[in-house]
């Protein structure tokens, strides 16, 4: 196979490799494609990514045939352009650009105007009749080449130019005349000589090979590596090199250059959108040296700008360009991001690619393109990045507003919020009741902070990862949250804190961006989400194409209502412990835990029963006949214990047991490893009366609701099961209690009893466990924690190093470790089905809202995924994409 593919001129290649992004890179493929459909593309050739990979593997050595192939390809450009490379009279100049399989904006290198030297610059001057243009091009080339290929700091050159302008009394580059540029060229060459001890290369072929080498080398530059890591781009793809005849937008007032989108990338509106500059070269538009002008008359008028649009200033070239826009959109069936140049009235296309866009624009374009008949529904569904919907589901910071960034943490729950800093949950609640917007800032949160989290507009924690308590609860509530911000240190004694280097006090206003993890001083303005219109239409399409159901993780009627509004088809996980932490109940819960015997526990549970029944009642009402998976108490008891002396005293007063006794009991309940301790079904085994109360509350509520409304569909779920026997004992408890309630109420409700699969042993023994359990819900938070032996609450501190070093591609608490943990899921699903072919399978760990994990669940044939309310639309879309 060839390592070079020419394009443009008379080339008509039917070799599919010449348009294959994996071989010739995205830019090369699109240039070949454009040339192929007859668009004006300057002739050129592409050296393949395979050659780059080979070059890097062979210690920066080209394959032996490459020299000859480049010589042949160069002749193709010379013929098509009618100029010769290195010709002293009328030289061919080329650009050399990188182009990987996916675009990596600004990450790799480009050299323009290559082929100029002391001789050819004269030829360019006389052939173009424009000496100023020729010398300007030469100085640009020396600077770019010195930076990219020779490794010299561009500031050396910029400083010289600034001084020259000052000396001449010039303000802008355009004031520089031919002789000024010629003088600059002399100074630039002197810089190269003094820095490197040798002259700037004069041989165009030496220049070309130097540039090719630099592009290949740039694949392994530090910034490219960082970009790849952040964007999950494999290091073994390599980049292609595109060598192309130069065309010039800086040949006077009939020349121009610009960038354009075929639709508005911010709003999605079907209108050309772009910027251009007369008498300029491409980098002038991007670099912001001159202010670019509007492309269309409509845009100029709307902005009330003076300088003529391209539509007015160059009507013929503009008309040609507009026709190209339409052709390209029809051809690629997507919004295109285009670079073009007009050289003395003649239009040239330099690049096209699918344009980046906001989530809002993506939705509008996808829906309108279906209406226009450009794409079908499935394509539209697959066009939208599910995670990008997050941008639309929460208020977001105004992108144009200035930001005073103090520091950052993990982007734990998206959206933006501003408010006064409060350092504890009670204060948060009190201030919120007074109508203040507050941000709760804690070292980390615990279930006791729930009321404060609910009262706060946003949550900031110094510790904890993406599945820490703060993160999970905040996502569930739709509160923006930045977690694990190690730049935050709190001094509770003085009620002050430091964020980064800045000293702050309780009451100071900050802003959180939960989508990026940024923490900012003061209030940054936000914009509200819109969930209607194109968003709704696309969601309907997604629902038509998905197989898996989407449920929600919710434990309050409010959350259930929010989730239903977002299209949830049931509750996949109702964590009943969240109901225990409410102010009115916590002392009864503590009384229950600290009781010395069963009788003491029962007395406390009797107080909790009506409260819990009321919770279930309202949830069943909101969910109106949709399935609700209720998980019985799960967390380690020690989480409910009082800590401060005042709390012990308060409790002592409330329940009439002395403080010393309470403290002794609390000491007995202390655990070294609570996540592996007295929690989950182990609580039900040792204190069956707790589960009995919960089950009773649940079925009493179900019977009551069934009397007037839709019959609830409860699924009772037992957490942290490792053995069949545990489930057997607890299922019997559930059945027994349910039967009692049905007898008392004179009504039956059909229900199921199942288990979470969240321990490796449960996954391995799933065949046996399915003999008892009627459904499985994969608790992938704990399953990840226990399979990797990695604490969900402590790993944030070092996990980023693991991701950076490529040990994990992504945080395994965010995106399922499919290779490892995924095996256990697959195995449990298979063994469960062997025993019970109709067993219902779902996932309720945080992964239920992660698109990659959802795709995996589709592959395993799970029946549903369950995600926090604000992730429900993301899950609906991801499930549809997985099914398509
Ligand atoms: C799980 O472990 O994945 C789960 C959903 O339960 P929790 O997060 O409440 O432990
Ligand atoms: Mg769990």
UniProtKB/TrEMBL annotation:
InterPro entries: ATP_grasp_subdomain_1 (IPR013815), PEP-util_enz_mobile_dom (IPR008279), PEP_util_AS (IPR018274), PEP_util_C (IPR000121), PEP_util_CS (IPR023151), Phosphohistidine_dom_sf (IPR036637), PPDK_AMP/ATP-bd (IPR002192), Pyruvate_phosphate_dikinase (IPR010121). Its cofactor is Mg(2+). GO terms for molecular function: pyruvate, phosphate dikinase activity. It catalyses: pyruvate + phosphate + ATP = phosphoenolpyruvate + AMP + diphosphate + H(+). Residues 23-58, 60-303, 319-371 form the Pyruvate phosphate dikinase AMP/ATP-binding domain. Residues 1-20 are annotated as: Disordered. Pfam families: PEP-utilizers (PF00391), PEP-utilizers_C (PF02896), PPDK_N (PF01326). Its EC number is 2.7.9.1. SUPFAM superfamilies: Glutathione synthetase ATP-binding domain-like (SSF56059), Phosphoenolpyruvate/pyruvate domain (SSF51621), Phosphohistidine domain (SSF52009). It is an enzyme of class 2 (transferase). Belongs to the PEP-utilizing enzyme family. Catalyzes the reversible phosphorylation of pyruvate and phosphate. PANTHER family: PHOSPHOENOLPYRUVATE DIKINASE-RELATED, PYRUVATE, PHOSPHATE DIKINASE 1, CHLOROPLASTIC. This is Pyruvate, phosphate dikinase. It comes from Novosphingobium aquae.
């Amino acid at each position: 196979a060839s390592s070079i593919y020419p394009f443009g001129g008379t080339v008509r290649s039917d070799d599919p490799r010449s348009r294959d992004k994996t071989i010739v890179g995205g830019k090369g493929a699109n240039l070949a494609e454009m040339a192929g459909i007859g668009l004006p593309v300057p002739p050129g050739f592409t050296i393949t990514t395979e050659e780059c990979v080979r070059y890097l593997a062979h210690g920066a050595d080209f394959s032996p045939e490459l020299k000859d192939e480049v010589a042949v390809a160069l002749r193709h450009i010379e013929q098509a352009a009618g100029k010769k490379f290195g010709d002293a009279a009328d030289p061919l100049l080329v650009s050399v650009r990188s182009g990987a399989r996916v675009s990596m904006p600004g990450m790799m290198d480009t050299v323009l105007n290559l082929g100029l030297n002391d001789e050819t610059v004269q030829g360019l001057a006389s052939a173009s009749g424009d000496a100023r243009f020729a010398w300007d091009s030469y100085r640009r080339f020396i600077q770019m080449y010195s930076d990219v290929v020779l490794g010299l700091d561009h500031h050396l050159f910029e400083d010289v130019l600034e001084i020259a302008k000052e000396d001449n009394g010039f303000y802008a580059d355009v004031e520089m005349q031919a002789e000024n540029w010629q003088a600059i060229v002399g100074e630039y060459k002197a810089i190269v000589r003094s820095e490197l001890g040798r002259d700037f290369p004069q041989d165009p072929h030496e220049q070309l090979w130097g540039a090719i080498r630099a592009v290949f080398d740039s694949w392994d530059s530090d910034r490219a590596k960082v970009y790849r890591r952040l964007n999950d781009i494999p290091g073994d793809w390599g980049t292609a090199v595109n060598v192309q005849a130069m065309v010039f937008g800086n040949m006077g007032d009939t020349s121009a250059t610009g960038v354009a989108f075929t639709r508005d990338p911010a709003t999605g509106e079907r209108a050309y959108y772009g910027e251009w500059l007369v008498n300029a070269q491409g980098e002038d538009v991007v670099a912001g040296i001159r202010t670019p002008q509007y492309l269309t008359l409509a845009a100029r008028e709307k902005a009330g700008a003076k300088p003529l649009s391209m539509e007015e200033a160059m009507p013929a070239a503009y008309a040609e360009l507009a026709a190209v826009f339409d052709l390209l959109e029809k051809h690629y069936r997507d919004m295109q991001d285009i670079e073009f140049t007009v050289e003395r009235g003649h239009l040239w296309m330099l690049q096209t690619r699918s344009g980046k866009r906001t989530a809002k624009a993506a939705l509008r374009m996808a829906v309108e393109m279906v209406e226009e008949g450009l794409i079908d529904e499935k394509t539209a569904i697959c066009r939208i990045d599910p995670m990008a919907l997050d941008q639309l589901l929460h208020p977001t910071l105004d992108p144009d507003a200035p930001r005073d960034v103090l520091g950052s943490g993990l982007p734990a729950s998206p959206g933006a919020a501003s408010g006064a800093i409060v350092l504890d949950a009670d204060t948060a609640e009190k201030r919120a009741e007074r109508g203040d917007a507050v941000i709760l800032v804690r070292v980390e949160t615990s279930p006791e902070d729930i009321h404060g989290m609910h009262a706060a507009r946003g949550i900031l924690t110094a510790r904890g990862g993406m599945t820490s308590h703060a993160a999970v609860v905040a996502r569930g509530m739709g509160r923006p949250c930045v977690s694990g911000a190690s730049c935050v240190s709190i001094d509770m004694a003085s009620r002050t804190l430091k964020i980064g280097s800045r000293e702050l006090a309780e009451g100071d206003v900050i802003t959180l961006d939960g989508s990026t993890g940024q923490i900012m001083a003061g209030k940054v303005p936000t914009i509200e989400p819109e969930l209607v219109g194109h968003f709704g239409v696309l969601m309907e399409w997604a629902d038509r194409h998905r197989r898996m159901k989407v449920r929600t993780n919710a434990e309050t009627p409010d959350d259930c209502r929010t989730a239903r509004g977002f299209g949830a088809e049931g509750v996949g996980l109702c964590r009943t412990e969240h109901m225990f932490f409410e102010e009115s109940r916590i002392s009864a819960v503590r009384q229950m835990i600290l009781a010395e015997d069963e009788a003491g526990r029962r007395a406390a549970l009797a107080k909790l029963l009506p409260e819990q029944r009321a919770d279930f009642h309202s949830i069943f009402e909101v969910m109106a006949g949709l399935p609700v998976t209720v998980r019985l108490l799960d967390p380690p008891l020690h989480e409910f214990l009082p800590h401060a002396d005042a709390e012990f005293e308060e409790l002592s007063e409330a329940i009439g047991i002395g403080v010393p006794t309470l403290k002794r009991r609390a000491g007995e309940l202390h655990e070294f490893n609570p996540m592996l301790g007295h929690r989950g079904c182990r609580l039900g085994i040792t204190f069956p009366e707790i589960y009995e109360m919960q089950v009773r509350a649940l079925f009493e509520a179900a019977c009551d609701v069934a009397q007037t409304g839709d019959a609830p569909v409860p699924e009772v779920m037992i957490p942290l099961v490792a053995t069949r026997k545990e489930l057997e004992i607890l299922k019997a408890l559930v059945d027994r209690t349910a039967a009692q309630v049905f007898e008392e109420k004179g009504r039956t409700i059909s229900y199921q009893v199942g288990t979470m699969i969240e321990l490796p042993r449960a996954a391995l023994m799933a065949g046996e466990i399915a003999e008892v359990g009627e459904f499985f819900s994969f608790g992938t938070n704990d399953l990840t924690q226990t399979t990797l032996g990695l604490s969900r609450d402590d790993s944030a501190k070092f996990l980023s190093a693991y991701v950076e070093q490529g040990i994990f591609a992504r945080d395994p608490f965010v995106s399922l470790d499919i290779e490892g943990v995924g095996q256990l899921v697959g195995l449990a699903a298979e063994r469960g089905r062997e025993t019970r072919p109709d067993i219902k399978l779902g996932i309720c760990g945080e992964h239920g809202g992660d698109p990659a994990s959802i795709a995996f669940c589709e592959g395993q044939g799970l029946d549903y995924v369950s995600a926090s309310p604000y992730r429900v639309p993301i899950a609906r879309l991801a499930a549809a994409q997985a099914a398509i």
